[in-house]
Design a protein that fits this description.
alpha/beta, Rossmann fold, 5-stranded parallel beta sheet, globular
Length: 210
């Protein structure tokens, strides 16, 4: 399947019209400004299970052990060159929805039969780009906990180049971030950068980012 100059946005917040949703909308505005198509997925609206460790994907190269709302999402992951993960911090980590989604991307790995097993990613080497956004009520980095790393590290292992990681601190009340111009500007710049990176990687041009 060939890559499209398209961005898949995966929103892991359980709260509608919360801060994650407002940051997502700002990203979408940036993508629209660059003429880049995107698709948004709200994990809270899907019915799916976490990985059950059946290992059938090692042979099938797809998640065949489970059939649920994530099944149709795999084709979008494969076809979209860009990926955005957004999650509020829940107990120093990503939400359960986001963790289950990331674990279900296990099917994109290829494992050898040695011990410990060596592995490669079927998504690697394709100039895939990603943006990671974490939102925390508290104001200190340690209170964000593993939220950013829990999204960033798996994507890097899968072969994504992380264009930006955006930690957002000090917001909790529903929609409060919409009044923070500094954060919205930062998110807008990051979205613009991701869109431009996709363009440059597809046409062979090199762009300078400011």
């Amino acid at each position: 399947m060939s890559l499209e100059r398209k961005i898949l946005i995966v929103n892991g917040s359980p709260r509608k019209k919360g801060n994650s949703d407002f940051l997502q909308e700002r990203l979408e505005q940036a993508f629209e400004g660059r003429g880049v198509s995107f698709e948004a997925v709200y994990l809270r609206d899907l019915s799916y299970s976490s990985c059950i460790g059946c290992e059938r994907c090692r042979k099938d190269e797809a998640c065949t052990g489970l059939k649920d709302d994530l099944t149709d999402l795999y084709s979008q992951i494969l076809s979209c060159q860009g990926l955005v993960l957004i999650s509020p911090a829940h107990n120093y980590n990503v939400t359960a929805w986001m963790k289950a989604f990331i674990d279900r991307m296990y099917c994109f790995y290829h494992f050898e039969n040695d011990r410990p097993r060596s592995w490669t990613s079927r998504l690697a080497g394709e100039e895939r780009k990603a943006l990671v956004v974490g939102i925390c009520e508290q104001i200190h980095k340690e209170d964000m906990g593993f939220t950013i790393g829990a999204m960033e590290r798996p994507l890097e292992a899968l072969g994504y180049d992380i264009v930006e990681t955006i930690p957002v601190y000090g917001v909790f009340d529903r929609g409060a971030v919409k009044d923070d111009k500094g954060v919205l500007d930062e998110i807008g710049r990051a979205g613009d950068k991701l869109a431009r990176t996709l363009k440059s990687s597809n046409n062979g041009e090199r762009e300078i980012f400011f």
